[in-house]
Amino acid sequence: MQQTRNAAGLYRPEFERDSCGFGLIAQMDNRPSHWLVQTSIDALARLTHRGAIAADGKSGDGCGLLMRKPDAFLRQAAAGAGIKLGEHYGVGMVFLNRDPAMAEAARAELQAELERQGLAVAGWRAVPVNPDACGEESRESLPDIVQIFVNSPAGMLPEVFERHLFVARRRASQRIQARDPVYYAPSLSSRLISYKGLVMPANLPVFYPDLGDERLESSICLFHQRFSTNTLPQWRLAQPFRYLAHNGEINTIGGNRNWAEARSYTFSSRLLPDMAEIRPLVNMTGSDSSSLDNMLEVLVMGGMDLFRAMRLLIPPAWQNVEHMDPDLRAFYEYNSMHLEPWDGPAGIVLTDGRYAGCVLDRNGLRPARYVITEDRHITIASEIGVYDYAPEQVVAKGRMKPGEMLAVDVETGRLLTPADIDNDLKSRHPYRHWLRGNVQRLRSLYREEPEGELLAPDSLDTYQKLFGVTFEERDQVLRVLAEAGQEAVGSMGDDTPFAVLSARPRSVYDYFRQQFAQVTNPPIDPLREAVVMSLETCLGAECNLFEENPSYAPRLTANSPVLTEGRYRALLANPDGRYPHRIVDLNYPVDEGLQVAIERICAEAVAAAREGVVLLVLSDCPIAQDRLPIHALLATGAVHHRLVRDGLRCDINLVVHTATARDPHHIAALLGYGATLVHPYLAYDLLRDLLRSGEIVNRDYPTLVENYRKGISKGLYKIISKMGISTINSYRGAQLFEIVGLGDEVVDLCFKDTTSRIQGAGFGDLEADQAELARRAWKRRLPIEPGGLLKYMHGGEYHAYNPDVVQTLQQAVASGDYADYRTFAQLVNERPVATLRDLLRLKPATQPIPLDEVESIETILPRFDSAGMSLGALSPEAHETLAEAMNRLGGRSNSGEGGEDPARYGTVKMSKIKQVASGRFGVTPAYLVNAEVLQIKVAQGAKPGEGGQLPGDKVDATIARLRFSRPGVALISPPPHHDIYSIEDLAQLIFDLKQVNPQALVSVKLVAEAGVGTIAAGVAKAYADLITISGYDGGTGASPLTSVKYAGSPWELGLSETHQTLRRNNLRDKVRLQTDGGLKTGLDVVKAAILGAESFGFGTGPMVALGCKYLRICHLNNCATGVATQNKVLRLNHYRGTADKVANYFKFIAREVRELMASLGVRRFEELIGRTELLESLPGATDKHRGLDLAPILSDAGLAADRPRFCLEPRNVPFDRGELAERMVRDCLPAITAKAGGEFSYALKNIHRSIGARLSGEIARRHGDLGMESAPIKLRLTGTAGQSFGVWNAGGLHLYLEGDANDYVGKGMAGGKLVIHPPANSRFDGHRTPIIGNTCLYGATGGTLYAAGTAGERFAVRNSGVLAVVEGVGDHGCEYMTGGVVVVLGETGVNFGAGMTGGFAFVLDEHNAFVDRYNHELIDIHRIATENMEPQRNYLLALIEDYVAETGSVWGQAILDDFRYYASRTWLVKPKAAELESLLETLREAA
Amino acid sequence: MSKAKPLLFVDVPRQDPNKKPARERVVEFGEIYGQFNPQSAATQAGRCLHCGNPYCEWKCPVHNYIPNWLQLIAEGNLFEAAEMSHRTNSLPEVCGRVCPQDRLCEGDCTLNDGFGAVTIGAVEKYITDEALKAGWRPDLSAVTPTGKRVAIVGAGPAGLGCADILARNGVKPVVFDRYSQIGGLLTFGIPPFKLEKEVIQTRREIMEGMGVEFRLGVEIGRDLAFQQLLDQYDAVFLGMGTYTFMKGGFPGEGLSGVHDALPYLISNVNRLLGLERDPHEFVDMQNQRVVVLGGGDTAMDCNRTAIRQGAASVTCAYRRDEANMPGSRREVANAKEEGVRFLWNRQPIEIVGDERVEGVKVCATRLGAADARGRRTPEVVPGSEEIIPADRVIIAFGFQPSPAPWFADFGIAVDDRGRVRATPVSARKFQTANPKVFAGGDMVRGSDLVVTAIFEGREAAEGILDYLEV
Ligand SMILES: Cc1cc2nc3c(=O)[nH]c(=O)nc-3n(C[C@H](O)[C@H](O)[C@H](O)COP(=O)(O)O)c2cc1C
Ligand code: SF4
Ligand code: SF4
Ligand code: F3S
């Protein structure tokens, strides 16, 4: 075992994530005021719920202001400090080390650099601060805060002055920070100044008395409140930064940073001639937001204006948006080749002192609302209502839409709308004209897919053997891709050893675990939101970003990074002579050695680049018996990093021509490490061979090629989308993987900067594996291997759930005999090394104790939960048996994401854990109150970053009813919770759940991944009570095969990292930690406890106890054991599971745990938790095992032993006590109890969140979801409602709001009524004004929503029963809707009706734009003006009449007044599968 | 993942190939099972669930890739199926015919629990039979000869399996057998109604086409000294089976009319194959009341052979109950159909008669408690003696190893039961105490199955290849 560099455990600083509330206030006519500053601070305080509070209860994660320079105040302050300011001056905010020597050195250095730039330092001012405003933790890290004043030389232009300040600051920082980590300059500018700190928003002006000084006036102020996933905060990471404040996360930050480094050599600007002096252009450490700020600053300082710079970094979706302006598209297309997007959720407010603006990411994953008041103040913020304005003062309200940019120019008083900005950008140059004739599509360069030269069968066999192709892969991966045009689906988890643990040669790709988005950023739904995604790939040498001219236009484009033979040949034919190529042979002489060979090909690549080669082809074909291939991934990564390091990467496109890549994961890995294009030539040869052998029939080769490529494309979309990335260009080089099992020598040469925490195989091991394959490959007589990776095969890879294990377990639970269990346990506990924990051994105690001194089985059993397994995946019988068994044992069963039949509530068959997943199936108030634990399923081990999947064959009438969906229609849940796009969104959902069921504990289920510990810290700060860390190997009912195989990491890493990180952050005592994934025996439990778990989830194990024989056909609805099927014959005649069998299993485990505790000398289970000294690592059986270093897993992270190691708090109570909600309950409870109804009135502010949830919970607990409908409680409300207005609304609760509301209105509502209308004295145009926010009606199952205004993005996503009327919606309206009626009396955004399988909608389309807006895949649209549509028209008329009566909508009345006209402009939208006649029935029933 | 309809196994029951009616079967010695046609083979193969854990493959001693070739057959890909089938089994057409599938692959098939197991054996037979008819042959064109030669003693399934692997790896196998035809017990022990001898003849042609050389009618140790094999060959494999038949150990076994199972069966095969040297060697059960003692497959073969010879009656007595018989349930069922009468829980005490057998005295038994291995031992019921009238008695209690006297001369070690020591997990699989000598099959395991003999022969061949550094 080797020692890593990090003896401090598994945590890494770069794992930190953050998100937040943000905003800006600007006086459009540049009239500064202290009111504006004060109001910004107040607004920050109104966004406290979007920030986080440290364990000390007072330190914030950071908040701050960035304002246009308050000239008058600063001059007075300078004078007070004896500083003489010139006509033009700059001011800097500087954090200095509290150590005087360090501080003095930093001052000197900064001053020297300024003087070197020809600038005069006028003086320093100590900023008044009040440390009492800090919490304990932020006091510890509090720097010495000073301001530096710099005078501008006479005659120097302001922009030049700014640039000199910039260069001086950058150079000084590089020098100072090398020895002084505290030093930081938040701002240094003649236009802007920053005040920020690790305090609560309310304490910001207390900490900085300047901010409370009425003389401090500004006309632009940005503000930001941070929620970090780590409570070891740094002052420098508080926002805003120097140009922007960012809410969200740049998923592609690794790639963006590396590409920025690579481009720093091509960057050239007259204005910044010495780029070298300020390299690296962006910080390589610290937060993604700070890097984005760096990049923006570099672009602006280099001469690019704010708007173009921002649009290049955060572009809208343009590749697949059909209706986009051609000139605007040309602008984006022209620039896309020269800079890849910084991709991820982003809400950004920015200012350069003159312009103040806001930008949203292409998919609208962050909220931003604005209001313009009569006094010409514009306020843009995460929420509406962040300060109190009178309704009659409002001139306009709006929201930022996906991909939009809005700005105000305070020097001209002009509001720059998105259209204004777009028109300006697209008109700067004739981009479309430039591109014309200069953009060639690769496909157009050849006519037909060439048959090519078919490899002779025995030669093909050699390739297959050399590159590890098996019969299994041919049949179950490649054949499916080629026949079906998509990946094969499988069942259950990956029960094979990790690549490094395997005793067999495994693909290098198997050492790479795909990263995925959970909590702090959302995955994207590639099925329903493909409109924002693109695989389009561009070829040619990159050019200088700072110059735009037609000579930079020529390029080759392809619609996917996967080449076919035809495209490959066309490419190498060097069209136009612009793309000279060089082929680098990856096969090296055996005696050269792998590492030397890699270094040699890197040198060859550099030489080629210097010679002007544009296409560098890395090829492992042809093969030779006296050579070994360098694995394409090793070569790609090494060459990419070398070219970046040598400043040549942007001159080269990397084309990888390889036999190693065959499935989407392989190709994604190559792209992730820098490949531009991949030609998986062996895959195509195999398709031909499948035709030759007759394994594929009735297809021709070109069709197979296209299907295969389509299947790979779908797989690539899935892989990038699980990390929340929209474009392959952003994914390229982003290295979004964790390496598990490669030694540092390999990582350092080939995969620099990739997380790799436990070492493993070195070059020698990889070479030996390849040599072993080669030995077999060149023996012509040997056939290709049969396989055994996906399913058990004798002589193939070890499987943890092999037939012996399954049979012995089933025997034991049937007999109830512990001796039989011991046989099973021995097979598991003494197996060949298959998991990391198999390399960890319990240290024998010096003093074992008698068994009767160990705590009882009865006290251990409640630590066991059955893991979430949905009803749907499981048969009702299996689902109920599990619940009954767990309830009898004192543990808890988990409903999984399929809902639960209310008939089970209150019985022994009820699941005590109710799961809330992205599909929100069955989630109603009654469901939520019938739970002890509410589990938010963020991710699942078998497919993290993706949604749950239930094939249509398994959706029978019962399942459809319980899930509020359609029988026979496949259910693929959205990858993200649409109400969790960020950590503070999760905090909101947790708050929502605690409101509806205050007695319940809230659990969050995550999957092990590098950085899951910091995510868990954020989850704990979001007030979760329990956290589950699932391993990659957990089971599932249905999942794409590469999702099972390649995403997620072992729970040994995730659990240990989480335990370490929670302890570091003083959060461990607040949450209960659980782990699941492959747990089978008491030894597994004890090891997991030692690594930090106090609770344990079992999925597959108890299923096997019920009779599952691990057939892996759960997805086919034909499980012969009746466990995972909805087929009645199989369930009734062949299901043999009993609660006794499951109970036997868990009792056996508990008994084994007791025995192990006795052997360890441990009396109570708590004495095990987190005690890593009880484990020691073993050398293992292979050289690869011996290369592993498990010390980081066993590390105590340098923390004192007396820090809590397990949960001590009964629950994690939110900072926000919800006083108004409690008051509502006190007022209404008698009426609820008596089922009497009534009317109550309250005033709301944006801080009042989840209004109605608390009441709904009380209603549901007593009367079910709808039992109160006959005697409704009406609340008359005024003002601005905070997030989640009407969440989980129960029948009988009617909420009337005069005002507006933020996000998630009516989320999960089951009944009742929500009516929202603008104040009576409103001056704005209601039907063009947002009245509710994003993701309203998410997962709602019933009730009515009338909102007299427009809604934001994803309105009615997963709606299955609500009747809704609004006057406009944003993008993705009615996404994945399965029931209900939605009436949109105005414009929709794009992608309306994506994945809509039930219900229907009416859309008023005045300007005939809807045809370009809706998603054509599953819905069709009908005019309703024709005669045969009278029932539909009548229904709509009556509905609008009721709507107008309830809301007083002016627009609604106008429609009624001229209904014939508006009806003629209205579409009826319905699922293609639905009949118009059946809709009529629904209409009649609804009316 | 299954390509066929997922619920086919529910909609379509298990359907074996047509079995000849007992009325027809009892008057001839031909195989009783018909053959699938391509459609029925495809349909039955399509019932397979393609289990994540293929229990069939796990239980099969040669670990056939069963779901894979079932899928190929379900899709009509016969030659690929034949190729796949031979990856793991040297004699698939034989195993398909003689394996006790009901306690091996089919017994453990997931569908055997309430649905009717997949007809694995019948499909396995179908694959090779039909592929060979259609012209498929093993393709050794890619094999480079190594110049090495290995002597194989015994042309039974163990020896044939070994020869197959050696040939496929460029090593010349020379197979010696004292019989005039290959197959060992396949030819001379197993009756033709289970395994027609043309099947073995075809396999001989195939293997000769693969370069296997047979030297028949040569008994090592009598016609040819073992030392010569050691001298002339690079390695030697022993697959000589077990031939010392077990006696009952009760009075009367020496009476006239009492026969041992194997000589009886062999005499019948010799008669049928025209290999009989003297008509007196033939044992005829026509019109005789026959009692067979034993419960294994050998006993079944004797039962059913006697039936076909026209015995007046055939009674099989076994000391345990039906559930605990070691033989294949399917064989018992076939025997019942053909008229065999079974007496369970009967233990023979004495064969009674005066010079010639007149009956068998048995007493009743009951099963006692299960031992550590789960096997229940019969206990005698006092006062339950009875005599079963009989003209002929066949002793079918199984076989023990008959180690050659010259083993010791060459350092080939045996255990206390006469089995040659050659372990599957040694550095070189199935190597004996003499490093140049390898062994497998019944002589290593004790009396067992064709498929286990094949497996050990193939594994031993791998050991030999390692030994020869091929
Ligand atoms: C049939 C089946 C269905 C599952 N359904 C869900 C689900 O609905 N929600 C969820 O979070 N996890 C689900 N899982 C994953 C389990 O909750 C759990 O994480 C995993 O099974 C634990 O690993 P194990 O199967 O190795 O014990 C499912 C697992 C199986 C086997
Ligand atoms: S060899 Fe025997 S056990 Fe194996 S599959 Fe064939 S019939 Fe079944
Ligand atoms: S056990 Fe039966 S159903 Fe399963 S793979 Fe084998 S033959 Fe098919
Ligand atoms: S793996 Fe699935 S198909 Fe049935 S036997 Fe087990 S539930």
Automatic annotation (TrEMBL), chain A:
Domain of life assignment = Bacteria
Name the UniProt key words of this record, in alphabetical order: 3Fe-4S, Amino-acid biosynthesis, Flavoprotein, FMN, Glutamate biosynthesis, Glutamine amidotransferase, Iron, Iron-sulfur, Metal-binding, Oxidoreductase
- Entry-linked Pfam families: GATase_2, Glu_syn_central, Glu_synthase, GXGXG
Q: Which CDD domains match?
A: gltB_C (cd00982), GltS (cd00713), GltS_FMN (cd02808)
Instruction: Give the UniProt family note.
Output: Belongs to the glutamate synthase family.
The residues covered by the Glutamine amidotransferase type-2 domain are 20-411
Cofactor(s) for this protein?
Answer: FMN; [3Fe-4S] cluster
This entry's Gene Ontology molecular function terms read:
glutamate synthase (NADPH) activity
Which class of enzymes does this protein belong to? oxidoreductase
Q: Which gene encodes it?
A: gltB
Q: In which pathway does it act?
A: Amino-acid biosynthesis
Q: What is its EC number?
A: 1.4.1.13
This chain's protein is named Glutamate synthase large subunit
Automatic annotation (TrEMBL), chain B:
Give a Pfam family name: Fer4_20
**Keyword set, alphabetical order:** 4Fe-4S, Iron, Iron-sulfur, Metal-binding, Oxidoreductase
Q: Where is the FAD/NAD(P)-binding domain?
A: 149-457
Kindly provide the name given to this protein in its UniProt entry.
Glutamate synthase small subunit
Sequence ranges assigned to domain Dihydroprymidine dehydrogenase in this UniProt record: 26-135
List the SUPFAM superfamilies hit by this protein, alphabetically.
alpha-helical ferredoxin, Nucleotide-binding domain
Instruction: Report which superkingdom the organism of origin falls in.
Output: Bacteria
